[in-house]
Amino acid sequence: MIPDTLERSIDLSQRVARQLDRDADRLGCDWWETETAAVIVDLARSGPYLVALAGIAQAIKATNDPLWVTGDTSTSAAHKVAWEWLEAGVEPTELVEWLLAGCWDPNAARRMADQGIEPTELLDRNGEPAVFVEGLDGERIPVALAVADSHISAADAVGLVRR
C-alpha cells in the first residue's frame, strides 16, 4: 500500500507533467522551454520560502483569521510575513506551529527558540495552545502570545513550559 503523502505527490507530479506537455504543445516548443518549467525551477530554488508560505496558509486555514496571521488578506502581506519569519531565522518547517501556539512575532519565536523552547512544546495533541499565563487584564493567554506581546520574557516562558 502506498502512503497518502506519496500518493498525493505522485498525483501532483502527474498533473505537472500533463501541464508541461499541454504548454509545450500549445507553444510548439520542448517542455523545458515553457514558462511553466521556468516557474517550477524557480519554486524549487525557493524551498524555505515556499515552506514558510505554506505554513502561513495552514495557520490561516486553522485559525480562520488571516488578519491575525498576516495583518491583511492579500498575498503581498503573506509574502512579506513569510520573509519576516525567514529573516528572523525561524525554521520554516516550524512556522505554522509557532503561529498556532499564539506567537505572531517571528523575533519572539526566535528568542524562545534561542532559550531552547520548541514550538511543539507549546501545543497540545490537537494543535492548540497548551501552556497559558495570566495576561495583563487577568485573562488566560497562550505563553507564546505573552512573549510576542512582551508581557513576559522568553526566559520566563521556559519556566512555564518546563513546569
Describe the structure.
- The protein is mainly alpha-helical and 163 residues long.
- It has one domain.
- The chain contains 9 helices and 2 strands.
- It has helices spanning 4-27, 35-45, 47-63, 66-70, 75-87, 95-101, 106-114, 143-148, 154-162, and strands at 132-134, 140-142.
- Strands 1-2 form a two-stranded antiparallel ribbon.
- A hairpin with a 5-residue loop joins β1 and β2.
- α3 crosses α5 and α3 runs parallel beside α6.
- The longest helix has 24 residues, at 4-27.
- The radius of gyration is 20 Å and the shape is elongated.
- The mean pLDDT is 92.
Name the helix and strand elements from N-terminus to C-terminus, one letter apiece: HHHHHHHEEHH
Describe the strand arrangement of the main beta sheet, using strand numbers: 1-2
C-alpha-based Rg, rounded: 20 Å
Give the overall average pLDDT.
Answer: 92
Structural class comes to mainly alpha
Give the % helix: 55-70%
How many separate domains?
Answer: 1
The total strand number stands at 2
Query: Treating each run of at least 4 consecutive H or I residues as one helix, how many helices?
Result: 9
Low-confidence stretches: none
What profile does the largest beta sheet have? 2 strands, antiparallel
Separation of the first and last Cα atoms: 42 Å
Task: Tell me the layout of helices and strands.
Elements: H1 4-27, H2 35-45, H3 47-63, H4 66-70, H5 75-87, H6 95-101, H7 106-114, E1 132-134, E2 140-142, H8 143-148, H9 154-162
